[in-house]
Amino acid sequence: MGLDIFIVIVYLAILVAMGFLGGKSVENAGDFTASGKRYGAPVIFASLAASYIGGGYSSGNAAEAFSSGLGMTIALFGFSIATIFTGKYLVPGISRFEGAASTGEIIARSYGKTAGVVTGFFAFFCCAGVVGAQMEAMGVVFHSLLSIPPAAGILLGCGIVLLYSTAGGLQSVIAADMVQFILLAVGMPLLLILSLHRAGGIGAVIQATPSSFFDPLNGTTLPGFLSLALTMTFGEMLVPPYTQRLLIGKNHRSTAKGTVASGLFSIPFFIITGLIGLTARALQVTEQPAEAMPQLILQVLPTGIRGVVMAAMVSIMLSAADGFLNGAAVSLVRDVVRPLCPTLSDKKELRYLRATNFLTGLTAVLVALFIPNIFRILILAYSCWSPVIVIPLAAALLGVKSDRRAFFKALVAGLITTLVWDHLLKQPATVTGTTVGIFANFLVFWWQTRRYRRHASQTLQLHCQ
FRET pair for 396, CA 20 to 30 Å: which of 3, 14, 131, 207? Predict the structure, then answer.
């Protein structure tokens, strides 16, 4: 076990060193946000994959499979479809927003400065919530793997992420993503293969699993499952860290290829982590779903390999946290502070970016300590994004012409519908407010856009006469 811990410590030290080395090249705000067309398809692919595969999509998925079956795994395919759709149909629209470095800047160019500022606020809260979910997952992982108290694990994980992401910004985050992607792409399949061997093969695991666990409706209703699938589809669609990756690609063709590849990669990855949960259940490594993956690592893998897979699991948590942490800082400073303070100097903007990155990490720790449920934190974060911003943002990338009225009315409709459905109606038929809010946002945006186009057409006809 000492060798395994040593491997994890060396890995964490490498990440911190990369952050400080990257920080030496960060001289302005553009360096911190990695502005400019710097990265090709392989980097976009690996960075996107490392960013979205966090605690919820790995150990959280394994925990759900352990406790209730493959319903969550199947629902997660909605995310895969959304990512592939983004690569094929939305990425080409990035070329219309040359020089933009954030979601708020895209929205501001499409619907006005105020809309961009509002987007910055919602983007910040969404990203901070996702970071909180990853911090919660880190606490579980460090506790299970290294016997560290959960609260101390949260603080340790947060401290590591803050060191390299605050120092080097998005450049250091992407460099870390490359290492993290390799570890998770090797570590998780290796864990499943060796665990299945211990269990007697996939047939033995299936035999030891109740048949209801292969029913996606196990423990829920059809509307509830469809709602969950739609939440997974739209919940993280075009969130700030992912959109940032799209904006820094060398050209839209290579960016599209990298995005589609990351969506395709997620399908087998979700299957692997779901099967890890079922295998942990078959081997009876624990009674606690949240500890299914960590305990499988500790009880099944030999020394040395166990250290590599432990580093891979830690890597999964860090890779999602660092991207969303950077996304939160960029959203608040570039989309809110800079438009409201147009005379802000570049050096001061860089200081604000680093300070926001640091303070957001500390806030995320508080979220993780007081809301101890990964998926609950994720769904709360999603409610600040998908029911209010995704539809207008996707429309802008598709080249749909609309106005600020459509943006704000759709935002209010999506937000109010989500809050009423979740908190007043208490999620009838187990359908989430996020799902209903997305539909409300879409309907209002579509209706107002039709009115805008009709008015624009009538105005044009009057000018021609």
Answer: 131
Q: What is the mean pLDDT of the chain?
A: 86
Reading phi first (left if > 0) and then psi (alpha if -120 to 50, else beta), residue 88 is in alpha
Helices (H) and strands (E) in the chain, counts: 20, 0
In our burial notation (b when 16+ CB lie closer than 10 A, e otherwise), range 368-395 reads bbeeeebbebbbbbbbbbbbbbbbbbbb
- From CA 386, how far away is CA 369, in angstroms rounded? 25
What is the end-to-end Cα distance of the chain in Å, rounded?
83
Tens digits of residue pLDDT in 138-158:
777 787 777 888 888 888 888
For the cut 70, the answer to whether the pLDDT of residue 462 exceeds it is: no
Question: What pLDDT is recorded for position 377?
Answer: 67
- Count CA atoms closer than 13 A to 267's CA, side-chain side: 10
Confidence of residue 81 (pLDDT cuts 50, 70, 90): very high
Residues 402-413, buried b or exposed e (16+ Cβ, 10 A)?
A: bbbebbbebbeb
| 104: its two tokens | 């708020």
With 0-12 / 13-18 / 19 or more C-beta atoms within 10 angstroms meaning exposed / middle / buried, residue 335 is buried
Query: For residues 168 and 23, is the Cβ–Cβ distance under 8 A?
Result: yes
Lookup result for tokens 């720790």: 365
What values do phi and psi take at 380, rounded to 5?
Answer: -65, -40
Tell me what pLDDT residue 378 has: 66
pLDDT tens digit string along 38-50?
788 899 999 888 8
Q: What percent of the chain has pLDDT over 70?
A: 94
Alpha helices in 103-239 (DSSP H): 103-111, 113-146, 150-199, 202-208, 222-235
DSSP label of 302: P
pLDDT over 60 (residue 180): yes
